[in-house]
Amino acid sequence: MLETDFKAWCHAFQKRADQAGVSAQTLEFCASYLRPDPRVLERQSNQSEFTLNISQYLDRAVTDNRIRKGRARFRANRALLNSISEQFGVDAQVILAIWGLETDYGATRGDWPVLTALATLAQSGHRSEFFEDELIAALMIIDAGDIAPASMLGSWAGAMGHGQFLPSSYQRFAVDSDGDGRRDIWGDDPQDGLASIANYLAEHGWRMSRPCRVEVTLPSGFDYALAGRQTKRPVLDWAGMGVRSADGEPVPDYGDASVVLPSGASGPAFMTFGNFEVLLTYNRAEAYAIAAGYLADRVQGGRPIKTRCPGDLVVLTRDRMREVQERLTTAGYDTQGVDGFPGPNTAAALRSYQRDRGLVADGFGSGAILDRLRAEDG
């Protein structure tokens, strides 16, 4: 990153921030933080791809230590969590679980200067408009007096505080729960941070005392074309097909539901409800939403998930998924594009391919599927 390029970007950005309503005083006060940090770009370029199956992911996200720590944090903050839960209509254990997943219950809130991180990402050219918008939001937060620039710390990607809010989410959903006149999600006292998590979920439609997902078993001959969040049916419809909870009992009626197979037919299956969709607004990864609900359950004494993925189940990288899409399309199973993301078109093509070969037609692109496609190509 050339210093002259950054200065030119910074000059243009400050004009945009001024037009957006950031005060001249704040722009001048924060000018020294608008500088490039090459470490941010190193972290961005070195991100590892998500290649864990759901069982491996949950093993890392919902550890015995995190469950024990969560129970201890719940005991220590019981009155606060219950008060926030009652105020916002969001289950206390879910607030706690997101706190645990995001920052290990406040232990790892991040120590990167957020203004510098966002300025670096905005000037780098990758999603520059998005990061400029977040940087303007961060400056407006400082303008409002909620935090000083030196104390606005977070992740290298600009996520802040106990709940790892981006600045734009902070503007919309952060609350001053302790009444001190500041929405402080950064400090050691977690009250504003926990209330802000609850407010976020409430504003996105969380329904109290309802699960986000239930582990289920599927009947022999289940039509895997029905799996996925794009298909929502009444619980009674699923029950009529033979879908049961993992302990063999009927699933209670929590409203329209989907059947989700995060690692295909050989891994665990879940029936997901409206609260699952709410969690996906916090983090778009289905694995994250499953982990949040699972940690919330385990902290409250819930049982472990019964089904594990086979140890040899390989989740494909984006490059390998592109190869699957290319090979499927060449073989006559059109994936409607080659982008490395296993969307519904790719799943439909995979199901057709699997069905024609007498395989379980779950539409999941695994390492075994790629090996088979390569072998067929000679």
UniProtKB/TrEMBL annotation:
Boundaries of every Transglycosylase SLT domain copy: 6-297
- Lineage, top-rank taxon, reads Bacteria
What biological processes does GO assign it? peptidoglycan catabolic process
Residues in Peptidoglycan binding-like domain copies: 318-364
The family database entries (CDD domains) matched by this protein are listed as: Slt35-like
Query: Which GO MF terms does the UniProt record name?
Result: peptidoglycan lytic transglycosylase activity
Pfam family of this protein, just one?
PG_binding_1
Q: Know the name of this protein? A: Membrane-bound lytic murein transglycosylase B
